[in-house]
Amino acid sequence: MPQVDLLDGKNYFNNGCIPIHVFIAQHNTSLTMHTHSFYEFVYIDRGFSTHFFNNTTTLLTPGDVFGIRPGDIHNYVYPKNTILYNCLFNLEALGNDINEIKKLPGVQQIMDPDIRPVWQRIRLEPAARKDAVTYLERMRLECERRQVGWEIKLKGLLMEFLVLFSRSYKEQFTRQAAGEYKYTQYMYKALEYIEEYYTESIMVEQIAAFIGLSTDYFSRMFKQFTGLTPVEYIRYVRLAKAAELLRQPGISIADVAMEVGFEDQGYFSRQFKQAMGVSPSRFQRENNEILGE
Known about the structure:
- This protein is an alpha+beta fold.
- The chain has 2 domains: 5-174, Jelly Rolls (Sandwich); 183-288, Arc Repressor Mutant, subunit A.
- The protein contains 11 helices and 8 strands.
- Strands 2, 4, 5, 6, 7 and 8 form a 6-stranded antiparallel beta sheet that branches. The chain has a two-stranded parallel ribbon with strand order 1-3.
- It is globular, with a radius of gyration of 20 Å.
- It starts with a strand and ends with a helix.
- The model is unreliable at 176-180 (pLDDT under 50).
């Protein structure tokens, strides 16, 4: 069985105070797999990282936000200058509003114990990113300063943040609202295209043509939206998928390279080491040791 650390809320929440804690963290090295006794929402502010959640590995970039329920297992795999906000809380912090909060789309999937935990990463559009950072930063300062009425303020900001998460979830998964930034939906289509065809030889021109934008305009907007160029993003998606496959016992590095779209195993190994900091063979060996295989 893999070693999983338990992060206890007693180490984050002060006795007699509302159980909400918000802080900024910076990651440059992999963390151990861990779980929590509390709920956690994470917002990626800068940098990028591959992320492991209940046997699913994905790429996180600026503007991504996700929720983790108590008992979920996750960790960050070889993050690169990743700066993020951690928002930790217990349900009791929501008081009498908890039942209404639990009904919110997206939030319900995280807080309802009868719903099987499924990885859902929300990509916030630029306006929502600004609001998210504002709420989180104000919560962080309330936690630090503890001025008169800070707990009331903290609870209100947390509920506003959860409503923002829910609205962004609904927009991302229903595609009904074009929003103030109309190019957002184009970016969603581009990301979906990459997720579907990353194993093939994708050209930036192909993606731009698929969503109906010029190559130059698409490239600029994509960099603004994800923090990476289209070519960089495709490469890191492939490497994140490779990291997920390398966790499977018995799979060869050559097979992993072919599976994620690299025809040359040597090139794949160089790209993997450049991005992750270790070779594919070492990554596979270390993860097999963690899993006790």
